[in-house]
Amino acid sequence: MSTNVLSTSAAIGFGGVVQEYLWNFENQQLRVVYETLGKGSPLLLLPSFSTVSTRLEVGELAKLLAPNFQVVAVDWPGFGESSRPSLNYRPEIYQQFLEDFVKAVFNTPIIVVAAGHAATYVLQLAVKQAVFSRIVLLAPTWRGPLPTMGASQQIAGIVRELVRSPILGQALYKLNTTPSFLSFMYRRHVFTDAAKITPSFIEKKWQTTQQPGARFASAAFVTGNLDAVHEQSHFLGLVQSLTVPLIVVIGESSPPKSREEMNALVALPGVRSVVIPGSLGLHEEYPAVVLEVVKDFLFSSEN
Q1: Phi and psi for 24 in degrees, rounded to 5?
Q2: Alpha-carbon distance 62 to 38, whole Å?
Q3: What average pLDDT does the segment 93-109 reach?
Q4: Cα(66)–Cα(42) distance, rounded to whole angstroms?
Q5: 95 close to 124: Cβ distance less than 8 angstroms
Q6: Cα–Cα distances in Å, from 154 out to 151, 168, 220?
Q7: Can you state the percent helix, strand and coil of the chain, rounding each to 5?
Q8: Radius of gyration from C-alpha coordinates of the chain
Q9: Are 201 and 183 in contact (CB under 8 A)?
């Protein structure tokens, strides 16, 4: 497997050095874009999976962390500026990617800060290998939107294949990524301050969704095909198997079903937690608050 890292310094992003990692999966090479900012101990920042997923959603948090850490933020394969081929996006891809990327870019155990659906992949790798020294989970989830709404695997699969289809799929995807729909979703369960959901903010999110091939990984996430576990007990079992310190940050306005899952997680022995303003997008909406509540944890030498 290739672990070449090519520097492609660019003016986009949040002010760091933008690079590309060429990753081979099943005889196909994918270009994965990541950005590095700051100096100090290495820290990996993983954005949540979503239709609008991009490393820019953790950009402000990265800038706040940069005075004390060398922050690396990644665009997941199939999202952001990374390659978006029409793969059958599934957990195996992201499990292998995260393992390979961490091995290629870092040479010591690192702190990882992961948002949303990235949580399960981080926990699985942490249980498998001693690559993380501390774990911060921001509004962690393990079940995609359609399964959370009660859709069966069969229904979710039909929806996924429809969105993947050439003509009808493109039309369905466009309907679900209009600026008005994106604004509705942000108001409903991503941000809590409507004043921050400006036309220019939504315009940038919309542009992210319109990249060639964007619908494939997005459809996989929405329909639950990126769910690396399918039972609450499996998710909690990963946490119980951890040997590194963990803190969970929860948005006080999280959707009820997501909040129930987060509450079950933080009820486990040894799991530190804090509740702050916000919902599923708390890392983007309140980055300074996030830093404030995890600062002591990041700098602590205690296990």
Answers
A1: -100, 125
A2: 9
A3: 97
A4: 10
A5: yes
A6: 8, 19, 13
A7: 45, 20, 35
A8: 18
A9: no
**Dist. CA 21–CA 57, nearest whole Å:** 20
Tokens describing residue 268 = 């486990």
Cβ(188)–Cβ(181) below 8 Å:
no
Phi, psi of 224 (to 5 degrees): 90, 5
Q: Say whether pLDDT at 190 is over 50.
A: yes
* The residue to which tokens 């950005």 are assigned: 35
CB 62 within 8 A of CB 138: no
Helices 256-266/232-240 angle, 10° precision: 30
Of the candidates 2, 191, 14, 212, the residue with the CA atom closest to the CA atom of residue 100: 2
Direct distance between the N- and C-terminal alpha carbons of the chain, in angstroms, rounded to an integer: 34
Q: Are strands 69-74 and 132-138 parallel, antiparallel or unpaired?
A: unpaired
pTM, entire model: 0.93
Average pLDDT over residues 95-109: 97
Structure tokens at 8: 């492609």
Provide φ and ψ at 114, rounded to 5°: -125, 135
Q: Are the C-beta atoms of residues 152 and 241 closer than 8 Å to each other? A: no
What percent of the chain is predicted at pLDDT more than 90? 82
So what's the pLDDT on residue 297?
97
Q: What is the pLDDT of residues 207-216, one digit of tens each?
A: 999 999 999 9
CB neighbours of residue 147 within 10 Å: 19
